[in-house]
Amino acid sequence: MAKNNRFETVYSQGTIDVVKVLVDKETGVNYVFAKEGYAGGLTPLLDENGNVVITKIEK
């Protein structure tokens, strides 16, 4: 099976309780992933104005 490298981890904190920031390398959209125990979630990262954080992608 081919390896898909669409998402890149740009920040990671913790080992049991984990917070990561991922960047979609196709769209530039930043996501926050949080895991605590058996629960976890993923949501777009927002700036102070409530806009989605987008990283410029060099192709």
What's the layout of helices and strands?
Layout: E1 7-13, E2 18-24, E3 30-36, E4 39-44
Antiparallel strand pairs: 1-2, 2-3, 3-4
Structure description:
With about 60 residues, the protein is mainly β. About 0% of the residues lie in helices and about 45% in strands. It is built from no helices and four strands. The model has no long low-confidence stretch (mean pLDDT about 95).
Brief overview, please?
This is DUF6440 domain-containing protein. With 59 residues, the protein is an all-beta fold. The protein is 0% helix and 46% strand.
Number of E strands: 4
* Element-level helix/strand string: EEEE
Distance between the termini: 24 Å
Sheet with the most strands: spatial strand order: 1-2-3-4
Q: Taking all residues together, what is the mean pLDDT?
A: 94
The proportion of residues forming helix, as a percent range, comes to: under 10%
Largest sheet: 4 strands, antiparallel
Structural class: mainly beta
Keywords:
4-stranded antiparallel β-sheet; single chain; DUF6440 domain-containing protein; DUF6440; mainly beta; 59 residues
